[in-house]
Amino acid sequence: MSQFPDEQSENGSFERQEDAFRESIGEPEPGRYHLYVCKACPWAHRTWIVLRLMGLEKAVSVNFLDPIRDERGWAFREGEGHGPDEVEGFRFLSEAYRRTDPDFDGRVTVPVLWDKREKRIVNNSEDDICRMLAVNFRSLAEHPIDLFPAELDLEQDALSRKIYETVNNGVYKAGFATSQEAYAAAFRELFGTLDNLEMRLAESGPWLFGENLVETDWRLFCTLIRFDAVYHGHFKCNLRKISEYPALQDYLQRLYFLPGIAETVNFDHIKRHYYVTHDDINPTRIYPEGPDLSWAGRG
Prior knowledge:
Elements lengths: L32 E5 L4 H13 L5 E5 L29 H7 L11 E4 L4 E4 L2 H11 L16 H16 L1 H6 L4 H25 L10 H20 L11 H11 L10 H11 L22
Parallel strand pairs: 1-2
Antiparallel strand pairs: 1-3, 3-4
Helix pairs in contact: 1-3, 1-7, 4-6, 4-7, 6-8, 7-8, 7-9
């Protein structure tokens, strides 16, 4: 049975739903906005990384949801690395969706950028939120780095789209496929792109655009950091591990050990979310002890 039946095509391929809330903000106000994220989710993880890179912790507050999602959706529960909703007192993130749109009937997702004054969701697209944090909130940033340099605009946008389609979402298209053909197609595209990125980094690193560290790098990072621990086994993306790609593994480690990044990565949340939540793929809900992540200071 499919994890998300409403997002399954007739040929067995996974077709992710469109984000429902895509508004932008005007002049940013410190303290007005709140970010709901789950540390296990790669989409939410990227927004949290951008917020920290920009130094926006004092301007935008953050809440962390329980990595275990059941039939009621994302929940605010007390636990290690997550806790109650500190802004609205919601028990479930679905309450924020219904307060914003009582007729919303899609899948509730993270991240969510919440307007504390208007009491509604501004945006639930990780792409939009990252750009707003990097551009719109720049005046409030303690260290306003340029994650979307104008001179790379077209090239960066094209590479980001390719990485999204075949890597970020590609692992999900492989993992949630319900036909052999759909799985195989996603699998080939995924590893075709990873092979190309390996060559790109080997030839012109250290980052995807040489010396320019941009948002596209963090887009890729959030999938790579989960790959060996989850996607390789759980989603059957098992042609190669990232640790078997010398340039990609070196790139992943350089990003991971940049100041403040390692502490955003919670492998316990990541493994428990995927292996326990996706019980159609893993009915026993047993999550693995491995792999060896000693390079990251983890067992």
